[in-house]
Amino acid sequence: MTNFLDRHGLSVDSRLVSFVEDKALPGTGVDTDEFWGDFASLLGKFAPENAALLAKREDLQARIDGWHRAHEGQAHDAQAYQAFLREIGYLVAEPAPFQIGTANVDPEIATMAGPQLVVPALNARFALNAANARWGSLYDAFYGTDALDAPPAKPGGYDAARGAAVIARAKAFLDDAVPLASGSWADWQGGQLLLADPSQWAGSKPGAILLKHNGLHIELVIDPDSAIGKSDPAGIADVLLEAALTTIIDLEDSVAAVDGEDKTLGYTNWLGLMRGDLTESFAKGGQTVTRAMEPDREWTSPSGEAFTLHGRSVMFVRNVGHLMTTPMIRLPDGSEAPEGLCDAVITSLCALHDLKGLGSRTNSRAGSIYIVKPKQHGPEECGFTDRLFDAVEDMLGLARHTIKVGVMDEERRTSANLAACIAAVKDRIVFINTGFLDRTGDEIHTSMRAGPMIPKGEMKTSDWIAAYEDRNVRIGLACGLSGKAQIGKGMWAMPDLMKAMLDAKIGHPKSGANTAWVPSPTAATLHALHYHMVDVFARQKDIAGEAVPSLDRLLAIPVATGRNWSEAEVARELDNNCQGILGYVVRWIDQGVGCSKVPDIDDVGLMEDRATLRISSQALANWLLHGVCTAEQVDAALARMAVKVDAQNAGDPLYEKLTPEGIAYQAARALIFEGVTQPSGYTEPLLHKYRLAKKAAA
């Protein structure tokens, strides 16, 4: 039974109280009683506003549903539709041209271009791996993945032939990025280093040379006595790339956090990262391995001056959106507190340890707190976040705009009003990012009554998606984000297919985005190659001022007009979606795993989080609503795919088989059959309901 304690009229989970009072507050200079009093006042002020914003979402959705009902069977009138959206306040007037005023931003966010990791806050090991992925071995990344065009490594220890191919590929990269004054890196014998551009030699230390290209560092590890270095003419044992410049520690889509126990674990790990003292021990190869955060890296410049490079990825924390409430804090009237308000206060409190230098590592040398705020609908909700962060700064004694915000451009109302959303947080914004899955889920839900949607696989090549991606970059550049903030792109979801990633993901820096998400530290190292191939900031200058794709294209509804699917096509789409839903939900509900590599219907491992679930469940809910499929067909697909998911998880000793009576199966079915009525098509309310039931049953 959870124990609750009274704090200024709030009923607070005792586990959270202990964390705040024993770990998060000490050393910050924030008085305990004042903290709880200010927290209670903040909740009292902002909780009603939060509820009003959610009510407005529902009102707008009801009006849009009504529009589509009234025009059922008629050809879509894009001009009349857009006029209607303006009339109801869904679309707002474009702001006058402006430039963001964000200051005190770390260079990894403002003036550098490179990969970004996203990891669940509840998994300390993953979080540490991500924080330490600032520097990655190019040799390891090529040797251990399919990214290298060479025969795979033979089993039974180091494969010298594979290793030789790795070294050749890495030195070809060096020839492109930091060419020698003459000859190839493959022929360099060591000794005097003569580069074609001497300014690219950034520093040295015993056993290493530091190079620089496109703002990113490259470290040559020199160790002629090592197994690799002894066979190299220059004694090069490895090539390390500056890789994951930034990481998002996630309390949202990649975690299953439903109560005070889960949330306190996430906050504890975030505090450990902000203090630099987070560690995690685990068994590996018959031994216990303890992982900790890497130190900074000391160098000497060519002119003899000592300098330091950051040893870790600069970390954001992703709070939850405005929708959910949490049972860990109850307001004086007995209702649950909005979870996003709690996240804003407590994650900022934890970050005070970084700003005040209370730990052993530094995250932000610029003195900022970086919070990603997802799932905001339009500029009014962004303005609410801005005022919320004002209030958190006041309660923690922080200067105005110390808390920076990343705005996820993943809801239709935000995409359509992006410039106004940026304007609403213009003095604290450090990040905009597109997300195909959530954005498509919201696209389907917003236009749920317009008709049956095209299959989700076809969404990727639809015109509205192309307009969405291009508008995001061009609006961001027009608002002055270049050199001050990140313009980001979405995740490569297939961590085992690195060759395909190398072929495809160069499109992100070419688009003008100075960061993009990757699923692993290895992927970050390989994706870093793209930022050596493309000078993103030069690319941004090239496309700055280009016309923003029209709102007409963005608002084109992806309805499958006049489409007649065969039974086989419908069955394939049902199986594909049901398999993905079951495969993800069974881990979320039964094991509390919010993000993992889940095999798809073709047994390709995909890094899945709640965004995948949203698009799949909304796609099926839409087809059910419009009679493309029947309830019986969906249930049959669920039954077929339960057998497949069971087989895919046969090697997991913690796995519980899917049965129609099981809580996970019931959750998966509810996500589909109740999808039309879920707020904005979000999966959180049902997932939390069934996960709490599972925890109670256990």
From TrEMBL:
Cofactors named for this entry: Mg(2+)
Domain of life: Bacteria
GO biological process: glyoxylate catabolic process; glyoxylate cycle; tricarboxylic acid cycle
Chief subcellular location: cytoplasm
Binding site for Mg(2+): 410, 438
Record-listed E.C. numbers: 2.3.3.9
Active-site residues (renumbered): 318 (proton acceptor), 609 (proton donor)
GO MF, any single term: malate synthase activity
Binding sites annotated in the UniProt record for acetyl-CoA: 118, 125-126, 254, 291, 519
Domain Malate synthase C-terminal: 570-677
Function text: Involved in the glycolate utilization. Catalyzes the condensation and subsequent hydrolysis of acetyl-coenzyme A (acetyl-CoA) and glyoxylate to form malate and CoA.
PANTHER family in alphabetical order: MALATE SYNTHASE G
Descriptive protein name: Malate synthase G
Organism: Sphingopyxis terrae subsp. ummariensis
